[in-house]
Specification:
Elements lengths: L2 H9 L3 E2 L4 E2 L6 E7 L4 E8 L5 H18 L4 E8 L14 E6 L7 H14 L4 E5 L7 H4 L18 E3 L2 E5 L14 H13 L9 E5 L6 H9 L4 E6 L3 H16 L4 E7 L3 E3 L2 E3 L6 H8 L4 E5 L17 H18 L1
Parallel strand pairs: 4-5, 6-10, 6-11, 7-9, 7-10, 11-12, 12-15
Antiparallel strand pairs: 1-2, 3-4, 8-9, 13-14
Helix pairs in contact: 3-9, 5-6, 7-8
The protein binds adenosine-5'-diphosphate and magnesium ion (MG).
The site of magnesium ion has 5 residues, from helix 3.
Length: 337
């Protein structure tokens, strides 16, 4: 038996008060790290209820006692994660690539970009999930033209996502009474996000998760950082300074939180009319944002033609749809390397 196994054995009889099972029974050991030189040990333990602070305190005390008193370690550091993380999508590690779609302002087309990018990735053969994390302004089901009804749960009581055009979708809108506003506070908001990441029965082979973030720089951005620090970000703006100046702020926040920026998308960039390119919402917003964030403007998306009869989902045969296919290919290539 090596030293790590010995540690695990010593700790395995400790009981997790939040489910009255031992750490051994819970199969709770996620990581044990040793620094022989410094006689220090770090342990990462899965807990049944991550919100149960008392339980965690008790566990911390009992683990430290055994490691220090019985095993003679000098330095001990103990971290916790939810037990269910391992079985959730967050337990899949680098196999899943997360792309957050952020903007400063609402109404710039963030959700439209998230939805069409998800569809385009699916179209080029990727397994894609779409999380509507704009909890208050959730409208992904409407954009995707999906019926609004509560999702079913599977045998393990996990939420089964709905599917549209080959993309798995989850949104608070599915859980809401139509037309009624949501009056939740911050902590409930982050619970909802936890559910989306820990308790949804996503397809096992999922490769991409696209996250439609709320506008601005609020709590959800912090929660995303906590749950998926490796989430990469796309910043959406329009060409207008009113949008680009706030998009820069959202970009800076993402950078501050150490997210990799994939680049800037300038939506509603122009409109082609009778051979002329009209800059209806101004010019230069995308470049400005990319410059200020030291990233690149990776895509301009024109204003959709009114005769197409829709502004939300684009057929992959029409101009804007083809642009999304190109964007999906570009991102898939970037993220493959
Ligand atoms: N390229 C575009 N051309 C025309 N209309 C668009 C385009 N992108 C988005 N829209 C429309 O603009 C509105 C706002 O888009 P939405 O994606 O809901 O923005 P956000 O999520 O940033 O609030 C929607 O009605 C959407 O259909
Ligand atoms: Mg939106």
């Amino acid at each position: 038996m090596n030293e790590k196994e010995r540690i695990q054995e010593k700790l395995s009889a400790i009981k997790d008060p939040s489910n009255e099972r031992t750490l051994g029974e819970n199969d709770a050991f996620r990581h044990i790290g040793l620094d022989e030189e410094k006689q220090a040990v770090t342990v990462l333990v899965g807990v049944a209820n991550e919100d149960d602070q008392q339980a965690k305190q008790k566990l911390r005390r009992e683990i430290a006692t055994i490691l220090k008193r019985d095993m003679g370690y000098g330095g001990v550091s103990i971290d916790f994660e939810p037990l269910k993380k391992k079985e959730s999508i967050l337990g899949k590690g680098k196999k899943v690539k997360y792309i957050g779609v952020a903007s400063g302002k609402g109404g710039v087309g963030k959700s439209t970009v998230a939805a069409n990018l998800a569809l385009a990735l699916a179209r080029i053969g990727k397994k894609v999930g779409l999380i509507d994390a704009d909890i208050y302004g959730a409208n992904m089901p409407v954009i995707l033209d999906m019926p609004i009804k509560p999702p079913k749960s599977d045998a393990k009581k996990r939420i089964v996502p709905f599917e549209k055009h080959g993309v798995e979708v989850i949104s608070t809108q599915f859980f809401m009474d139509e037309g009624k506003p949501l009056m939740w506070r911050g902590p409930m908001l982050s619970k909802m996000l936890n559910h989306f990441f820990y308790d949804v029965a996503w397809n096992d082979g999922i490769e991409y998760i696209i996250i439609d973030l709320p506008p601005g720089t609020g709590d959800v951005a912090l929660d995303i950082q906590r749950l998926i620090p490796e989430c990469r970000m796309l910043i959406v703006t329009t060409p207008h300074p009113s949008a680009s100046s706030v998009a820069v702020k959202a970009g800076f926040m993402a950078k501050e939180l150490k997210h990799e920026l994939l680049g800037v998308i300038e939506n509603m960039s122009h409109f082609d009319h009778e051979g002329e390119t009209l800059h209806i919402f101004g010019k230069g917003g995308g470049e400005t944002v990319a410059d200020k964030l030291s990233t690149s403007l990776i895509q301009k998306i024109p204003i959709a033609r009114p005769e197409s009869g829709h502004h939300s989902l684009f057929d992959m045969e029409e101009e804007v749809g083809l642009i999304y296919l190109g964007l999906a290919n570009k991102l898939a290539k970037t993220l493959a390397s």
